[in-house]
Design brief:
Number of helices: 12
Helix content: 25-40%
Number of domains: 1
CATH topology: Amidase signature (AS) enzymes
Structural class: alpha+beta
CATH architecture: Alpha-Beta Complex
CATH class: Alpha Beta
Number of strands: 17
Strand order of the largest sheet: 8-10-9-16-17-13-11-12
Distance between the termini: 15 Å
CATH superfamily: Amidase signature (AS) domain
Shape: globular
Length: 457
């Protein structure tokens, strides 16, 4: 087996059966990092010595005959936002350049408890605040498909590392399409679960022990090279942890097997008033036709009667208020409380509108973003889409709608555009239905062509 492009599930099975060792798996991935990271700049804060210690320990555990965990000996990376004991967590922010957490976040602890071997962190946008992964500490991450193009953000390092075979999986954060957009740009899979499904405890560095301000719209989720890998990682990291009090006590179910012919899937080539490249809209329509030919019940989406542009503006306002609350001395705002509750009431309308929409279909197929990977540029630079300049700030609009509503959504690679860049499509489902959404994606996966490695890797 080719270790660096094996799936997480296959790697775990091979190590558990002692067909390969954890050290061999680690060697292969570190060699891939050594060969390709200089040009891509996806992997940062590499803990080579610590990873070898963990891999050797995993092999010794198996040699004693102890039962392996679901990730036993599998090497992996993590987006540079998760607190990791003994390793730097910087979010690309100079004041956090030397920040080393005293303990692991919930997600990190669960991945380690499952037997995973943490190798390194992956690059991000500074403070996770852009759709390109670029910051003053580590520079910008390039797309393995074309080094002149961005890998996306803020989980761009994670997506690029998975696409280039430097790691089998990573876990990103998603407040405005920050998992799905880079996954689409780099041709990998990415899952944003339902809001309050995965613990945010330790998901952002907290050197000053400040009150946690990011409580809405932000989610953690896996990036990988198959639906099965998303499902495996999701099951390990999801669920209440006794730390994040916002988490819902919902069961984390295994991915069922679904018959495509029993599924009702709505499709939308775009959303009203949102720009999108013609090749992306065509990819949505072409996939919908293929699924219809295979027996699925396919219909063009009758989208909720919502003002989606206003939803995006309100989502941005909520993010702004949360970030403002994190400041040591927020400005005097006598109306802040009333504004907050008005904003939540408007959000309720969007959530309920999409809930009613999903009463009539199993999933929505639509774009992830308005374009494929674009050339590196300064934030705010207009983006060329089908020969016309479009607003940089509308890049993630199709995905950010579901951060605002809280519904689970995933990005899956489909085809390439005329420039040879991946087109990722978005699949959205009912709240709290990640396992079913993943099963729908698995039923669709044979029609998308699955993961394809970038040329030269």
């Amino acid at each position: 087996m080719e270790l660096v492009f094996s799936s997480t599930t296959d790697l775990a099975a091979a190590i558990a059966r002692r067909k390969i060792s954890a050290v061999e798996a680690l060697d292969a991935h570190l060699s891939q990092i050594d060969a390709h990271n200089e040009e891509i700049n996806a992997v940062i804060s590499l803990d080579r010595e610590g990873a070898y210690e963990r891999a050797k320990k995993a092999d010794a555990t198996l040699a004693r005959g102890d039962a392996p965990g679901p990730l036993h000996g599998v090497p992996f990376t993590l987006k540079d936002t998760h607190e990791t004991a003994g390793m730097k967590t910087t979010v690309g922010f100079p004041p956090f350049a030397d920040n080393i957490a005293q303990q692991d976040s919930t997600v990190v602890a669960r991945l380690k408890a499952a037997g995973g071997v943490l190798m390194a962190k992956t690059n991000v946008a500074m403070m996770l605040s852009d759709w390109q992964s670029d910051n003053p500490l580590f520079g910008h991450t390039s797309n393995p498909w074309n080094l002149q193009r961005t890998a996306g953000g803020s989980s761009g390092g994670a997506a690029a590392a998975v696409a280039a075979g430097m790691t089998p999986f990573d876990v990103g954060t998603d407040m405005q399409d920050s998992i799905r957009l880079p996954a689409a740009f780099c041709g990998v899979y990415g899952l944003k679960p339902t809001e309050h499904r995965i613990s945010l405890a330790g998901a952002f560095p907290d050197p000053g022990s400040a009150a946690r301000s990011v409580r809405l719209m932000s989610c953690l989720g896996p990036l990988a090279r198959s639906v099965d890998d998303l499902a495996l990682i999701y099951q390990i990291i999801a669920g209440p942890d006794g730390c994040d009090t916002d988490l819902a006590p919902m069961p984390v179910e295994a991915k069922p097997k679904l018959d495509l012919k029993a599924l009702r899937i709505a499709f939308a080539p775009s959303f009203p008033g949102f720009s999108v490249a013609g090749e992306i809209s065509a990819a949505v329509e072409n996939l919908a036709r293929q699924l219809q030919g295979a027996g699925a019940i396919i219909e063009e989406a009758n989208l909720p009667k919502l003002d989606l542009h206003n939803d995006l503006e309100q989502g941005g306002a909520l993010i702004g208020m949360m970030m403002e609350a994190a400041r040591p001395e927020p400005p005097e705002r006598p109306t802040a409380v009333s504004r907050w509750f008005e904003a939540l009431a408007r959000r309720d309308s969007s959530i309920l509108g999409w809930d009613r929409f999903f009463d009539n279909c199993d999933a929505l197929l639509c774009p992830v973003a308005m374009t494929t990977a674009f050339p590196h540029c300064a934030p705010g630079t207009p983006i060329m889409v089908d020969g016309k300049d479009q607003s940089y700030w509308m890049l993630p609009a199709h995905g950010a709608v579901f951060n605002y509503s809280g519904h689970p959504a995933l990005s899956m690679p489909c085809v390439e555009d005329r420039d040879g860049l991946p087109i990722g499509l978005q699949l959205v489902g009912k709240r709290w239905s990640e396992s079913r959404l993943l099963a729908i994606a698995a039923a669709i996966e044979p029609f998308t062509g699955c993961f394809r490695r970038p040329p030269g890797y």
